[in-house]
Amino acid sequence: MKYERFEQLPVWQAAMTLAEKVYLLTDGRAFGRLRELKDQFRRAALSVSNNIAEGFERGTTAELLSFLYIARGSAGEVRSMLLFCQRLDVLESEISNFKSQISDLLALAESCSRQIRAWAEHLQNTDIQGQRRLNDKTRQAFAAQRSTEAFMQKLQDIRNAAEKSNTMHEPS
């Protein structure tokens, strides 16, 4: 699937959910005394989706990759702060379902990180250099390559189906 807008990206949507949940978690009374942690926690959580969005809008694969790695780093920072929060007794005593919230947020941050890593690996293995680098000639070459690959896949599927049919009709 081709995404036209960053808002359509499942990883951006997951990152937004992460930021929302971090904001809700840090809105509690316990974080009132930990203002620096609260501010950094919120900035890191929001940084994940913001860097995905900025990289997507930049127009080159190299810039997108750079921002994806920054986003992934921010997801790691969120995980680190979540693990730190698990160690703080002052928070645990004031938030009844703290452990459950932390566990859910850790899983979500890890999911964002995995999605970002997979996307980055895919981008590193592609010849596309981004929208900004496309012109009519490169668009045509890319379309021709994709068409050829699709045709070759159809041929392979037909061949596989024929081989399967032949093995079914062979005497035992």
Q: How is this structure best described in words?
A:
This protein has 172 residues and is mainly α. The chain has two domains: 128 residues, 23S rRNA-intervening sequence (de novo design (two linked rop proteins)); 38 residues. The protein contains six helices and no strands. α1 packs antiparallel against α5 and α2 packs antiparallel against α3. The longest helix has 34 residues. The chain is elongated, with a radius of gyration of 23 Å. It starts with 9 loop residues before the first helix and ends with a helix. The mean pLDDT is 85.
Write the layout of secondary structure elements.
Elements: H1 10-26, H2 35-58, H3 61-87, H4 89-94, H5 98-124, H6 136-169
